[in-house]
Amino acid sequence: MVALVIAEHDNVALKGSTHHTISAALQCAGEVHVLVAGSNCAAVAAQAAQIAGVAKVLVADGAPFADGLAENVAEQIIAIAEGYSHILAPATAYGKNILPRVAARLDVAQISEITKVDGPDTFERPIYAGNAIATVQSRDKIKVITVRATGFEAASATGGAAATQTLSAVADSGKSVFVSREVAKLDRPELTAAKVIVSGGRGLGSAENFKVLEPLADRLGAAMGASRAAVDAGYVPNDWQVGQTGKIVAPTLYIAVGISGAIQHLAGMKDSKTIVAINKDPEAPIFAVADYGIVGDLFDIVPELVKALG
Predict the structure, then answer these.
(1) CA max distance for the chain
(2) What letters, b where the CB count within 10 A reaches 16 and e where it falls short, cover 94-112?
(3) What is the pLDDT of residue 245?
(4) By CB neighbour count within 10 A (0-12 exposed, 13-18 middle, 19+ buried), where does 253 fall?
(5) For residue 183, how many other CB atoms are within 10 A of its CB?
(6) pLDDT digits 0-9 by tens, 7-38
């Protein structure tokens, strides 16, 4: 069996989600290939070739892939799908946009957001906001799978020496046109890639009060996140949201401040290695998943933590 991983990238560098997806692919099949579909993406192909466990890198370099349009990338995947037992992509906006199209064209059922591989045809995925785990078995000839990165360790970025094969890029499908892109500029680490995250909830009370978390995040070199309640209240931007309908994260350290711990939020961060919760309500659900809990007024505790960190 041979698995194909669809690389997520920006034509310059691979996204970290690709490394996690390769780890999942290695558990599915004995050989793993990586498809890099982009424009002037030689640097990305070189990075993919160095990942441990990758046997071959397929490069489709052409103008139709410059902006990652799902319709065009899907056409390229369909063109080479025959012969692969598994086709995998990260369960990110990129992968979720492409693979459903591929599954439909191949007339197979997509298996979404797997967190564990039990066998070549059997996978585990969370359901009911992570409160239950479904075991799914597929009899399809080609398994089309999106991978939740938090469920798998990242494959090593070095140690590989994969062969590189150049593919003929498919023609532009003409089904969509790239218009524009607005890229958020961050002074902090990107949320889904951060090793430390400081998140705030409705308990902070206002957008202005969120500033109390900034010195703590600065000391820890952390990204900042938020619960849906805080986002819905307009305290912080949408791209800070952690949870089932936001971003799924699993940092080394997650500090939840003023977050009660609704099911939807827990689904997005409970795989964090160490969870610290600060809340004035000792019965808050967040304490059920926290490794360390502090009951008290966050406006007193957070400054004390900052002082203790020097």
Answers:
(1) 62
(2) bbbbbbbbbbeebebebbb
(3) 84
(4) middle
(5) 6
(6) 999 999 999 999 999 999 999 999 999 999 99
d(CA 97, CA 21) in angstroms, rounded, equals: 16
Question: What pLDDT is recorded for position 131?
Answer: 81
pTM of the full predicted structure?
0.85
Q: Starting from the edge strand earliest in sequence, which strands make up the sheet with 196-200, in order?
A: 223-226, 196-200, 253-257, 274-279, 292-295
- Of 295, 291, 222, which Cα lies nearest the Cα of 260? 295
What's the CA gap between 215 and 267, in Å, rounded? 27
Mean pLDDT score of the chain, rounded to an integer? 94
Q: What's the first-to-final CA gap in the chain, in angstroms?
A: 54
Name which of 276, 270, 275 is nearest 248 in CA terms.
Answer: 270
Cα 290 to Cα 270: distance, rounded to the nearest angstrom: 8
HEC secondary structure over the chain = CEEEEECCECCCCECHHHHHHHHHHHHHCCEEEEEEEECCCHHHHHHHHCCCCEEEEEEEECHHHCCCCHHHHHHHHHHHCCCCCEEEEECCHHHHHHHHHHHHHHCCCEEEEECEEEECCEEEEEECCCCEEEEEECCCCCEEEEECHHHCCCCCCCCCCCEEEECCCCCCCCCCCCCCCCCCCCCCCCHHHCCEEEEECHHHCCCHHHHHHHHHHHHHCCEEEECHHHHHCCCCCHHHEECCCCECCCCCEEEEECCCCCHHHHHHHCCCCEEEEEECCCCCHHHHCCCEEEECCHHHHHHHHHHHCC
Q: How far apart are CA 181 and CA 200, in angstroms?
A: 28
